[in-house]
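Review form for a predicted model. The reviewer records the input and the model, then writes brief findings.
Reviewer: anonymous (R2)
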Amino acid sequence: EIESFTIVPKYTEAGVSLGMITLSWVYGNYSTIASQTINGVTISPEIRSLTMTGEFTQSTTFNLVVTDGLGNTKTAQTKLEVLYPVFYGVREIPETYTEGFVYGLTKVIPTKEEFEFSTSSAESEYIYFCAPDSYGTCAFFHRGFEGGVQFVDSISLHLSETLTETYNIYRSDYPGLGNTRLRVTFSTGPHTD
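Model under review:
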């Protein structure tokens, strides 16, 4: 039996090339390992950890197949997830929404279909939240009540030299909300295991 098959790191940011990952696995009741492979590549039977280098820029599934000395075969999977960042913060209303405006906000990588953040806005500052269009419609909740934030614009955001994504910009209905904690839900992403 395969007790665990893990990857470190489990997540990376879209547009960023990850140079190294480490796969690790633990077997349970096997007394003898006859063979083991990861994505079809044979690994020496005594190895239980494998560090791989390269340019990891896409979500990738790794399949471990092990056969014991009696010919019994078991499989397990783990996955490197490439996720898009979201941005949040407080600002006054700009003349136009630009990449510089978005990159001036706090950047985080959500790993679930909901995300919580806190801000503190002064009298003329609005709360902003920017998410990739691929995450779907955002719903905002404050103290259990939905609303108070509206969609205001979409822009193309260059995440790297070769990756551009459409981002939706949301703004609070009112400025000067002081210390505020919001929960955001995404209708279609990010999807992680």
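Findings: The chain has one helix and 17 strands.
Further findings: The chain has a mean pLDDT of 93.
Recommendation: see findings above.
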